[in-house]
Predict the structure.
Amino acid sequence: MAEHRSMQRAALLDAARSLLSEGGTEALTFPALAERTGLARSSVYEYFRSRAAVVEELCEADFPVWAAEVSSAMAAAEGPEGKVEAYVRRQLVLVGDRRHRAVVAISASELDAGAREKIRAAHGGLVTMIGEALAAMGHAEPRLAAMLLQGVVDAAVRRIELGAAEDPTAITEAAVSMALRGVRG
């Protein structure tokens, strides 16, 4: 029974990722989740009390995976500038990943305070991750620089997600260039 519930919960989360990736937060409804998973709508409520609860669980499941991929790319890079470049590039590569698209859709939505706090905490982990490299580059305020750097990444993500006129590669190169010139101490 526990294994069945775990599989159903995983199927619901996977359906939620798909819905968010395809149609943003407006598409994430309990009837749509039920339809995607073949469950009765009332059964969805047995797993999640609200849409925000689905969002919170997605953040708990997906953001650490995403952060680990960014961390791994940074660990493989040489020197502080290489780590900054890896930080930016890896996040922009992940834009095409369904988990990332779901997190972006979630971030753009109107959520309750608990869900927003989980997203803020997850983003805070990314900011902390890059702070050491920025300090090594001579930044007097590495946390502030990290938050601003994440702003560059977030802007590039939005540009790519919008299907901007620019090629995603050009957006990535511009973001890396801006990050490296803008973070030198």
